[in-house]
């Protein structure tokens, strides 16, 4: 905590200041836009961008993460509070803060219990499918704001403004950096400057509203934005806690997943180390802070953090500078912000979420593992058809289902001896010798509840094809753990083999596994012996037979 | 399907007839009792014991499984339909049939999609905790029926009858078989005869009600039981389908888990082979049949199947005989059944579910793996505090959580060469030689989304302690699969090592893994080489350095 402050060097300052400035300029349109996605008054988006990043800077472990409003979390917030309160109402604000408080508390609790491993509950294809599905939902939701009316109708002045803004944003995203470079701007500066296009388009929209009578023609704006800093807003309506509990849990989980995946891809570029349990604490505290200052659930955003990173952020000081600038903006007159036309804001949202449509993983998975393409598609479809919350559940179920499915087909090899050596190899891949009274199987997986049935079934299957076997030797080189369920299955196998007069022998059991097994009855009742190596086992069992 | 009928031999018949008779005698009190647990008219329990076992006999793969009403499934049914319809009402019956139809359809679908691996979603400790928690809930729920009033009150005549029945049942369970043996009955017959105690106690209760005026004193009975066979009852009230969908899914899952665990423990005793996908089909069809004949969700019951097995059942013919006998019982005058006193029925339920309190696994887990004791306790508590449906979710979450948690700490060993040999071993366990410019790590786990972060972290950690390493060799002997997420993580590691000027080499990659990797970009961009063996890798990297 504040490790970075202790070792702060002056040469880091320039980068931090420039990043802080750039992200602040980005945050004003983004914060207001994502508050709109969440169905909240625009100013809530700015509130959620002030205290949360400051708190995250104190507890989090990423140097360049930018914590604040994020599109998908805003969508989830809207899904939860939409049915409970009208969009933009005071009640919606209170509920959003309560939701942030619950999510924050869940994250803090998980952090204290050191449950950072929860980040591993989603596979990458599932995460990507979830993100793409959510991005499409958000983009589609914004269409009617962009066009000023529900499809198939449109409000011509709004639509003209929205579509123009959309085109400007898409073109600037594609070509502005190149154009600025050709005009002689240094490459790095040009890339950053291009990121400020949304702010410029928004300013253009405000100027247009101020100088023309578009408002009278029915183009909607964000409306009054109250000045001043957010008040301490301890949510009061206790009647609404219960329906928020389960969604709060889900949102906390996604906050963590989104933030970790953003932070990881940046940490990798600088060989920084992320501590997942610190991230839980940092994000949890940031969400509690958001709740206490009238905000809504926040997380680390990959797009914004990447800009922060590219603009030179060296330490969380950059985020502190962003927060300070936003606080100043709120204390200055905010009348101009109230003229921000909603179609323009919708255009910035659509362009931002279309940036989440990263489909590279689909190509990789198509070549490498078609099952992952299926998981991607099912998660994406789950979000589109069943909604974003059900999408999370579908995603977890698919990740876990894939895991259990893969576990249910463990690799087991029949081994034979390479003639004249002490080496034993898979008989399917090597010319190895087997003996009819001896079946040697190597189990290439840890034994646990998810694969014990499959292992037992495979063993029975091999015993059926090697009907003359009197001894079964299990080679345990690749088994690093045996859980209680698998221990039971092994005991049952042992008893079954005993009844059939077949010896069960274990060879090359790893030290830690053996230490564990000594506390169980399996070893005491084993209908055979423990051997240090497969070769010793086979020699011994052969000699025993010859003597008999 | 009907494989057993084709190979039927006459000498199997005696066992099947005796088992069919015994289970029919057991089914009358059990079926009515479990209908009571589900909040349904008692006759529904008999209906659910006729067509379902016949249909299961056609499609299922277990020879001795007795499919019909089961305590925990009845409890789950009650939890779902209780809030929607008054106990014992006609609507409750319709909803229960709809629930059976949904569960049956889900099971059939899973069977057609060959999703038998779903049985592996619960670890044994979690399954045991779930069963124990449910048994306690059922026993506690029956207390007020046993005592004739809500605690702390009691209705003296009912309580006297209930407690007497309870004592008789507990004593006969404990001592009756021994007593009969001492009276000269053969051991096997005595064990079976003792299982008929519930039927005798129930008959005693009926006689008591018929001959005394206990009914006038307020002892409640099951009331009129309509005679005749069940009608085809296609559920009609479409308004209630939606709230039944998700519970139907959960119940289907538990039906499958309960039945598989019962069938497995019996199949093991006779070396029979269960096919999980056939079980899904068999159970699914049985539940659809139950729905169509006015029944409720059914599954294989361990206690009843064990009696079936012990009474000599050789093939599903035993179940067909049971079904035929029950159908006859319904066609005979059923007036006597209407006198069955509820306190006695409650006593049979309590004794039956207390038989589910199998705590042996706790002792094993306590000695072997304390984490599993925790999982047991959390699931049991989840059922007791949050209810049986939430208990399933808690159980799955805990099983999966344990899995991901274990996966997040993969075993990785630093290898060194045993001097003068080609063998490489864990330096912590063997006196093996390492070289400062070379770091050799053996990864003892399949690489997938659940452990890739942990693997990457561990590699970074080892690189930090071996700061002079210029080459990293990953020994892949134990890696049988690399999923898409892990492929990404490996590519990121490769790029990161490239930037730092460290070579990444892979040794002893298994054939199937290598085949897969050839479809990926990782091999093309690998910042190092593939080696057949660790020894070749080390020799080559050493020579390369000497030449340089």
How would you characterize this protein structure?
Chains A, B: This is Sulfate permease. Chains A, B: It comes from Rugamonas rivuli. Chains A, B: The chain crosses the membrane at residues 12-28, 34-59, 66-85, 91-113, 125-147, 153-171, 192-211, 248-268, 280-299, 311-332, 339-362, 374-399. Chains A, B: It is a multi-pass membrane protein. Chains A, B: It is found in: Membrane. Two copies of one chain form a homodimer. Chain A is elongated and about 100 Å long. In chain A, strands 4-3-5-6-7-8 form a six-stranded mixed beta sheet. In chain A, strands 1-2 form a two-stranded antiparallel ribbon. Chain A has helices at residues 3-6, 13-37, 43-47, 51-59, 71-81, 90-112, 124-147, 156-182, 187-195, 197-211, 241-270, 276-292, 302-310, 317-331, 342-354, 360-368, 370-386, 388-407, 452-465, 484-499, 511-517, 521-525, 534-547; strands at residues 67-68, 299-300, 412-417, 424-426, 438-443, 471-475, 503-507, 530-531. Chain A has two domains: 12-154 and 229-337 and 356-404, no CATH class; 412-547, Transcription Regulator spoIIAA (2-Layer Sandwich). With 548 residues, chain A is mostly helical. In chain A, α6 (90-112) packs antiparallel against α12 (276-292) and α7 runs antiparallel to α15 (342-354). The N and C termini of chain A lie far apart (71 Å). Chain A contains 23 helices and eight strands. Chains A and B meet through α16, α18, α19, α20 and α21 of A and α16, α18, α19 and α20 of B.
């Amino acid at each position: 905590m504040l490790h970075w402050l202790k070792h702060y060097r002056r040469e880091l300052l320039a980068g931090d200041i420039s990043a802080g400035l750039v992200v602040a300029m980005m945050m004003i349109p983004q914060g207001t836009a994502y508050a709109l996605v969440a169905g909240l008054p625009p100013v809530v988006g700015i509130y959620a961008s002030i205290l949360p990043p400051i708190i995250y800077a104190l507890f989090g472990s990423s140097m360049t993460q930018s914590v604040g409003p994020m599109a998908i979390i805003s969508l989830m917030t809207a899904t939860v509070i939409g049915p409970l309160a009208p969009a933009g109402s005071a009640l919606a604000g209170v509920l959003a803060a309560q939701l942030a408080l619950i999510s924050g508390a869940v994250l803090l609790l998980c952090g204290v219990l050191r449950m950072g491993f929860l980040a591993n509950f989603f596979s990458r294809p599932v995460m990507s499918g979830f993100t793409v599905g959510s991005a499409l939902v958000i983009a589609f939701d914004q269409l009617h704001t962009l066009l000023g009316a529900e499809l198939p109708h449109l409000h011509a002045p709004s639509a003209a403004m929205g579509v123009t803004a959309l085109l400007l944003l898409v073109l600037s995203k594609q070509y502005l950096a190149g154009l600025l470079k050709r005009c002689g701007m240094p490459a790095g500066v040009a890339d950053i400057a291009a990121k400020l296009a949304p702010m410029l388009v928004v300013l253009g929209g405000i100027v247009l509203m101020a100088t023309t009578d578009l408002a009278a023609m029915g183009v909607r704006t964000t409306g009054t934005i109250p000045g001043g800093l957010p008040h301490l807003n301890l949510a009061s309506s206790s009647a609404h806690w219960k329906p928020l509990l389960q969604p709060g849990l889900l949102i906390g989980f996604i906050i963590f997943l989104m933030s970790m995946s953003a932070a990881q891809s940046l940490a990798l570029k600088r060989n920084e180390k992320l501590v997942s349990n610190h991230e839980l604490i940092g994000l949890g505290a940031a969400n509690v802070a958001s709740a206490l200052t009238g905000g809504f659930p926040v997380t680390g955003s990959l797009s914004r953090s990447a800009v922060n990173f590219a603009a030179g952020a060296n330490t969380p000081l950059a985020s502190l500078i962003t927060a300070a600038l936003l606080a100043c903006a709120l204390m200055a007159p905010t009348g101009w912000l109230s003229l921000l036309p909603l179609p323009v804001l919708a255009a910035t949202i659509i362009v931002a979420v279309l940036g989440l449509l990263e489909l590279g993983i689909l190509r990789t998975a198509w070549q490498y593992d078609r099952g992952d393409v299926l998981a991607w598609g099912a998660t994406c479809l789950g979000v589109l058809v069943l909604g974003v919350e059900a999408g999370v559940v579908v995603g977890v179920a698919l990740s876990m289902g894939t895991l259990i499915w893969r576990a249910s087909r463990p690799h087991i090899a029949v081994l034979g001896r390479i003639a004249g050596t002490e080496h034993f190899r898979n008989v399917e891949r090597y010319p190895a010798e087997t003996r009819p009274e001896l079946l040697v199987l190597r189990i290439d997986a840890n034994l646990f509840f998810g694969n014990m049935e499959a292992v037992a079934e495979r063993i029975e299957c091999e015993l059926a094809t090697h009907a003359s076997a009197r001894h079964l030797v299990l080679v345990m080189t690749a088994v690093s753990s045996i859980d209680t369920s698998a221990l039971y299955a092994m005991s049952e196998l042992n008893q079954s083999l005993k009844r059939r007069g077949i010896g069960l022998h274990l060879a090359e059991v790893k030290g830690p596994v053996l230490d564990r097994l000594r506390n169980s009855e399996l070893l005491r009742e084993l209908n055979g012996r423990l051997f240090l190596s497969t070769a010793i086992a086979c020699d011994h069992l052969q000699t025993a037979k010859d003597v008999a």
